[in-house]
Amino acid sequence: MRHPMLLALLASSALVLVACEDSKKSSVSRAIDSVNAIDQENMADLMLAAGDANEAVAYFSGQVEADPSNIRNIRGLARSKVRAGRTAEAVPVWQNVIAHPEATNDDRVMLADTFIRANDWERAEQTLNFVPPTHETFDRYRLEAMIADSNQQWARADHFYETAAGLTTRPSGVFNNWGFSKLTRGNAREAEGLFTQALQHDPDLFTAKNNLALARAGQGNYNLPIVRMTQQERAMLLYTMSIAAIRKGDVTIGRTLLQEAIDTHPQHYDEAVRAMRALEGGGAG
């Protein structure tokens, strides 16, 4: 009588062991899948942040081919194409992202950014119009400011530049763009203040240094701004101010600044030398 019971118990134990073994295999499989997903996510982040831009394009192209419905892969391909300077190719990829059911308002903002890079301001504006006003992000307002600028809507541009600057811990680029906008409007004094703010946040931003030199020259102030600069940068700023002076009709000052730029540059300053020869050849003075 005991044997059937013993066999039943053994069979039951075997089933439990099999069930436990299956459960362990499932757990291990899930863990491996989880690790693979994390590895792929880390690889995607690495390719976008540090990898060679064209290598990133190749990587994400392969990922999209392997899993075409994964929005992360499509988004990565779009971003990598923008980073590689392949803007025309990036536009349709971002449009594929927007068409995806998991697309976000951030994706629409990035499509608008890509349209601006492609110099298609009208479609950039149309794209941003589909982003609800409740989506208040730095990138959105940065683009809104640039579009308002392109439309010469100055009050609107100023509002969006100011808003964007308040939404980031690194507003140097915003202040630089805002300053350049003021400069193109003929307001060199306010532009100078904005370029100075840009350099307070990023002392190495050369475009802001160059624009600051332009703003000062626009006011007839040909003294170099007191900012951190290398010897080569000093020569380049002197060159910028010299050209601005000559265009304003201050030819004697321009020639002096041009010669100083040539003397200051640590190597041969070809652009400045050509400008000096052109100036002398023209007989201006």
Automatic annotation (TrEMBL):
<feature type="signal peptide">
    <location>
        <begin position="1"/>
        <end position="19"/>
    </location>
</feature>
<dbReference type="Pfam" id="PF13432">
    <property type="entry name" value="TPR_16"/>
</dbReference>
<protein>
    <submittedName>
        <fullName>Flp pilus assembly protein TadD</fullName>
    </submittedName>
</protein>
<dbReference type="InterPro" id="IPR011990">
    <property type="entry name" value="TPR-like_helical_dom_sf"/>
</dbReference>
<keyword id="KW-0732">Signal</keyword>
